[in-house]
Amino acid sequence: MVSVTTKIYLIALHASLAGMLWGLDTGSIGPITQMEQFSSSIGHLSSGVLGIYVACILLSASLSSICSGYVADLLSRKYGILTGGIVVLLGTIISASAKTFPVLVCARLITGIGQGQSISVVTIYLCEISPQEIRGTVATVLQLLITIGIALGYFVAYASSRIGGELAWRTPFILEASMAAILVSGMAFMPYSPRWLVQRGRIDEARAVLQKLRASSEFVEDELRLIKGSLEERSREDASYREIFQRRYIRRSVLSVFLMSFEMLCGIDAVLYYAPILFTQAGFTSNRAAFLASGVSGIINLIFTIPAQLWVDKWGRRFPLIGGGISIATCFMAIGALYAIYGGRADGQVYLSGKGPQWAVITLIYMFVASFSWSWAVVIKIYACEIIPTRLRAKTCAVQQLSNWLVNFTVALTAPLFLRASPSGPYFFFGAATLFTTAVCHFFMPETKGKSLEEIEDLFEMTRPVMDRSVVIA
After folding, report:
1. What is the DSSP letter of 346?
2. What's the distance, CA 1 to chain centroid?
3. What does residue 351 show for φ and ψ, rounded to 5 degrees?
4. Burial call 5-32: b when 16+ CB within 10 Å, e when fewer
5. How far apart are CA 413 and CA 48, in angstroms?
6. What confidence tens digit (pLDDT) does each residue in 273-330 have?
7. What is the DSSP-derived secondary structure letter of residue 347?
């Protein structure tokens, strides 16, 4: 018989296929646009047009994420994920069959609508179905599958680049469509969030779900009472976006939106989307070598997500954000210094002189990916979700994801031009933004390790919150 804990992880794995879809696109879109077969059938893309094509998915995702709060509150968390999956399925089918560049752009916009809907709801769903003892670990399943998708996307694109003709660049889209179909077909059988059921007044159904998802039934009534207590005040009213920024909630809302926005200003998606460009600038001379180096970064991304998956509930939240932020900033500042000393521009392209500096930059890029993967990639999404009260969570997370994708859109849109315009500028900019975010975490971020979602609400309700600023692992 399957244990309750195993059941929760299986649910999390299936719901997090939405994350794998995002990862597949992130890992494959850069290599796809660098394939000769793509250029032959669609046409060569300039740096500006490339940025628009890659980034447009983030624009539509950001717009749909703001509506995801309404969908998650109205239809439920699980159907919020399912409906997003249906739209992703439609968009990837159109991408796989597109004959012209305008159709590809439209298909990518459609895919973004679905991604914005599903990704925004998954973290909420995972946090709300999990007991507090494993909530952090369960919520990291989403990031684990994103990293698996990124690595898989790189290597699928690397393998398909050897196929002759248009099928080379269509294959990654076909794989994405297949994965979306699996997500959609299974989500209808997943349980509802017990907190959403209580919010809708369906107490008996919530009790039944908790009895299936908790190891001991004796604590079910206590948890149910805590959930009802947190929703008691104006429980029959739907939360509004205006309420998110009322005086009572503004501190946690601003902190969560800030973290989700500045996560993208560390430069991770400039690396993941445009890895072939970065590795070409660092000395790789062929597309396939750059593709392979990009795939290695995907593997590193996956490997270093696993420690966070295992130990996030032991580490807490402050240590990964502060320690990881220092490590991330150090890597990019060092790369910026190497480009400032040994780099330059010739014929509109950035170059780096000397084998030593080239290998140092490649190593630092891998170290940057590793540092991000075990820290910010996992913890920011969990923390931003868990500090928000249950009745505001769906809409606040929608605002968080909107800010995340708008910043990400700006980074993805401008990165090709920025990377080719200045050898060291992008790295110094992203490093400085990371240091600023790390300082904010140190001074304004209370620890939430080991606390239930309802206890975290009490933590922020205190007039003078006690902030454990230690970053030492307990």
Report:
1. E
2. 33
3. -135, 165
4. beebbebbebbbbbbbbbbbbbbbbbbb
5. 8
6. 888 788 888 887 666 666 777 788 889 988 998 887 778 778 888 999 999 999 999 9
7. T
Residue (of 414, 356, 412, 404) closest to 380 by Cα position: 404
d(CA 145, CA 302): 9
The pair of structure tokens assigned to 48 is 């500006």
Q: Report yes or no: 139 and 453 within 8 Å, Cβ to Cβ.
A: no
Q: Are 107 and 95 in contact (CB under 8 A)?
A: yes
Q: 320 to each of 308, 309, 427, 454, how far by Cα in Å?
A: 9, 12, 21, 23
Q: Which amino acid is at 217?
A: S
* Residue appearing with tokens 């800010």: 403
DSSP code at position 320: H
Element (H, E) at 349: strand 349-352
Cα 315 to Cα 311: distance, rounded to the nearest angstrom: 6
Map 351-367 to HEC letters: EECCHHHHHHHHHHHHH
Q: Which position has the token pair 């480009």?
A: 339
Q: What share of the chain is helix, strand, coil (3-state, %, to 5)?
A: 80, 0, 20
- How many CB atoms are closer than 10 A to CB 2? 8
Separation between Cα atoms, residue 270 and residue 419, nearest integer Å: 9
Of the CA atoms within 13 Å of residue 187, those in its CB half-sphere come to 26
- Amino acid present at 149: G
**58-83 pLDDT, tens digit each:** 889 988 888 888 888 888 999 999 99
Residue whose token pair is 């993208």: 264
pTM: 0.79
Helix axes 77-97, 101-129, angle to 10 degrees: 160
